[in-house]
Amino acid sequence: MDEIGVGVLGTGWVAGEHIRSYGKIPGCRVVGLCSRTEEGARAKAIESGVAGARIYTGFDEMLADPAVHAVSICTPPNQHPGQVIAAARAGKHLLIEKAVANDPRLLGAMLRAVHEAGVKTVVSFVLHWNPEFVWIRRMLDEGTIGKIFIAEVDYWHNIGPHYAQYRWNVKREIAGSALLSAGCHAVDALRWFVQDEVDEVSAYSNRQNLEYEYDTNLVGILKFRGGAVGKTSTSLDVKSPYAFNIDLLGERGSIRDNRIFAREFFGGQTDWIEVPTIRPDSGDVTHHPFDGELSHFIDTVRSGEESPLNLSDAAKTHAVCFALDRSAAERRPVRMEEIEAEMR
To answer: Which CATH class is domain 4-124+290-310?
Structure first.
């Protein structure tokens, strides 16, 4: 394609960041916006600098447009399954905001539709492009701390009435759970850092904010196939600044956020080395590295190569979230094979 035309479905906070990032990619143009109301879509188009984009009030209309080659799904999570399946069947490549689905069976249907259509997908675990994440992944790839045997990643973010998505985030039908709403970023990070499959999980949860229809705080333990143990926690009630805590204990050293201790690698080291870098320390979507993520997405569309962050990989992160939520609800360990069977 000489130019890749992108349609953006949804006109909320994150959609604006997608539009701005697409505008920085050579050979890519936002050609259409779809929203429930024409007024909302036009306002977002003007605000985001794409006033000439086509406006659709029906998703089917956008999918029928041959100028749209790829679609950013920026709607609430409970709408994603039907929209992704319809877009895949229309032959559109997909950038999907998380959570991609709130139910294992629906996620399975999405996977089958994408596979049958042969379209390319990227799921928006955008922190893979955060500079601290990139540095940690490089340290791990270079064997700096050796094989990980304990990994802990926490997502602590007070999502109250002050936050843009609060009005729908409190609804179980829409947001699903604290993990699916937000904490899945921490689960995805655990999987990416450990580079192993999860066999079994156990979790407990509670809530403080009773406006939520689900527990807002969860602590879970993950057993990885290769022997590593993981811990993750999500709190939407935390009374503190946003925090994304990362602790990785390896056979040769340890990483704590942007600090590393690896005496074999850094000869004579006597204390932590702190790396000045941009950390994942804000829930403001303008802080997230969408430029890198969307450029990667367009590269996959051009090359035809699968992204390592495609729907198939993201389904594994979501399956762990489903299992942790089930463990907390039913007060029992949950093996991953139980969730995987429901997705088939």
So the answer is: alpha beta
